[in-house]
Amino acid sequence: MILLQSHSRFLLQTLLNRVHNLEKAVEVDYNWVEFDDVRYHVQVSMKNPNSFLLSVSLPIPSADTVFCGGLPSGAIEAIKAAYGVLVQILDPPRDGFNLTLKLNLSKLPPDEDNKHTILVKVASIREVVLGAPLRVILKHLGSKVVASDVNRLVALVHRPKESFFLVPQEFVEARRTAGLNNAPPCSWSPSPPQELKGAPNDALSANAGFVTFVIFPRHVEGNKVDRVIWSLSTFHAYVSYHVKCSEGFMHTRMRRRVESLIQNSNHLMVIDYMNWLESGRVMHQSFRCVRNLVLGSWVFCMPRIREFVPV
């Protein structure tokens, strides 16, 4: 199945176009929205072509999600660790946005491969910011260090006014199928699991049940942590994407089936009632008027025919 990319493709393309045309004084002012109501705004002025302003608006957090200064906990530290001197966090951010970054494009490395890698990381600002709280907890898990708040229920935002919960606990891994030994255990329940005891009632009023993933230290070793953070934080979008793809596939199959039926119906002969009268036969029949889907006209169908020999 297709996994969603962590970077914004439009943002990456905008950055690449700007970097490859630094000598051209062109103004840039773009606004767009991506899935889960994450909004972006980029701006470049003709006076300072090396300065690239990037603003990000995050989904509206639920009441049980902890935000510090309009950002998830640990987001500022995650931005500084990911981008270093390349970006500057502007305070206050642009009106209507949670975060505004000022990128100095002149500080990009000259090597094209390294430059592209950094730009992809910049285009993944959503993962860096929204995944900051999850990254801290998973790093403790990867290093097998027990955090001080190990029993605390952590709510993480991923969609407007919705959150998912992270429960740092110790689990015993059960025997599993050989082909899925490396995958995190996953389960579904129509009712809230016991680990969510104490969570707000609004957060537990799900209409489709609860999906539980169990993450072990081996799942977050080395560079695996970035993929785990992105997969968990975009799980709802991942499922919605494949459900819509399945619906589109079914609709396509239905259209093809209808087209084949219409083509077959074109080969059917429509009996002309007047020809039957001219042949000298007298018929008594009940008529049924139906709509011809192919020609768009009304035709007479004769399902039952009774013939009489003329006297």
From TrEMBL:
Keywords assigned: Actin-binding, Cell projection, Cytoplasm, Cytoskeleton
Domain of life: Eukaryota
Cellular compartment(s): Cell projection; Cytoplasm, Cytoskeleton
Pfam family, one: P34-Arc
Gene Ontology MF annotations: actin filament binding; structural constituent of cytoskeleton
GO cellular component, one term: Arp2/3 protein complex
Function: Functions as actin-binding component of the Arp2/3 complex which is involved in regulation of actin polymerization and together with an activating nucleation-promoting factor (NPF) mediates the formation of branched actin networks. Seems to contact the mother actin filament. Arp2/3 complex plays a critical role in the control of cell morphogenesis via the modulation of cell polarity development.
Official protein name in the record: Arp2/3 complex 34 kDa subunit
Organism, as annotated: Momordica charantia
